[in-house]
UniProtKB/TrEMBL annotation:
Record organism: Petrolisthes cinctipes (Flat porcelain crab)
The protein's name in its UniProt record: Reverse transcriptase domain-containing protein
Length: 335
């Protein structure tokens, strides 16, 4: 029974889902490497007891950190005493984890896969009618771009634009849409931008964590509610460690436990205070709000007083509030 595979694991953390098993440990000294190898040996022993054999060719060792001396001297072996190959990227449940702590490689692979499927659709199906194209997009391409996006949602503009380019190119092929701008095409087709879809998933997951419908990211980065009679329920925002390097702070600030509360807290109170309802009901109420927020990037050349800083949901909501305070509509500002 695979449920007891972690039996006897004393020094490391083991996670298993179906036939995908990962074991990890923080390494500070050579003694930690020995402890990790001991726990790995217990996993080999469990496999032998259950008459199972691990495929050593599928083993991968992912090393991440800033201490190169420890990284270069961390080696593990299989049950046959063969050295496990190190790799800069390791796939875990469909998501590539990289040794630099970013998801850039995963984003690149996601874009390649989505483009291949979109290209296959355009080559295989002759019809360019709206209903046909949207059905194929939602069934075959969109799930690839959405999968686990709460975890790897990018914060760099180049990655955001690269993901957006897949939908941008595909919607141009829809009948009577080629001459329209990308943002006008999204309005006509009833689609969100890819960035807004990822933010929608982040909001939904954060709400689920507050409702205890899913586990929080970790005990350290637990998503916690904060109640205030004036502002309603908000999500406590985490602050990156002050002593951490700038690169680590950047990675943490864009992660789900840090970025999720920021996006969730920008919503109207009636959405944040929703509790005890079904997930579908929450999504319906959320969509009613998202449809009122412009899903279009700021116009170049306008001052920050008039335009949003970025196309992210918090900045667009902040723009709406500032425009309302100035007695202005949400559309293009007066010159």
């Amino acid at each position: 029974m695979i449920g007891d595979i972690d039996k006897g694991i004393a020094h490391s953390t083991l996670a298993s889902f179906a036939d995908d098993t990962n074991i990890c440990k923080s390494i500070g000294t050579s003694e930690d490497v020995k402890l990790l190898q001991e726990d790995l040996g217990r996993v080999y022993g469990w496999a032998k007891e259950n008459n199972m054999i691990f495929n050593g060719d599928k083993f991968q060792l992912l090393r991440s950190g800033t201490n190169h001396e420890i990284l270069n001297n961390t080696y593990l072996v299989t049950s046959d005493n063969q050295t496990i190959d190190t790799s800069p990227h390791a796939k875990c449940l469909g998501v590539y984890l990289s040794d630099d702590g970013t998801f850039k490689h995963h984003i690149e692979q996601t874009i390649k896969k989505a483009r291949r499927i979109a290209g296959w659709i355009l080559r295989t199906f002759y019809s360019r009618e709206k209903d046909c194209m949207l059905t194929l997009w939602r069934a075959l391409v969109q799930p690839v771009l959405d999968y686990c996006s709460q975890l790897w949602s990018p914060h760099m503009a180049m990655d955001i634009q690269a993901l957006e380019s897949v939908q941008r190119a595909y919607t141009r092929q829809v009948k009577a849409m080629k001459e329209l701008s990308y943002w006008e095409r999204l309005k006509r087709l009833g689609l969100y931008s890819q960035q807004r879809r990822r933010e929608r998933y982040i909001i939904t997951y954060t709400w689920k964590a507050l409702e205890k419908l899913v586990p929080s990211p970790s005990n350290i980065n637990e998503v916690e509610p904060q109640f205030n009679q004036r502002t309603g329920r908000k999500c406590v925002r985490k602050i990156p460690p002050s002593q951490a390097p700038v690169r680590i702070k950047t990675l943490l600030s864009s992660s789900l436990p840090y970025n999720g509360p920021r996006i969730f807290n920008c919503l109207p109170r009636r959405i944040r205070d929703l509790t005890g309802c079904s997930v579908d009901s929450f999504k319906t109420q959320l969509d009613s709000v998202l449809r009122t927020v412009p899903d279009e990037p700021p116009v170049p050349g306008y001052t920050s007083l008039c335009r949003a800083v970025t196309n992210s949901l918090p900045d667009q909501v902040d723009l709406q509030r500032r425009d309302t305070g100035l007695g202005r509509s949400v559309g293009t500002p007066l010159l």
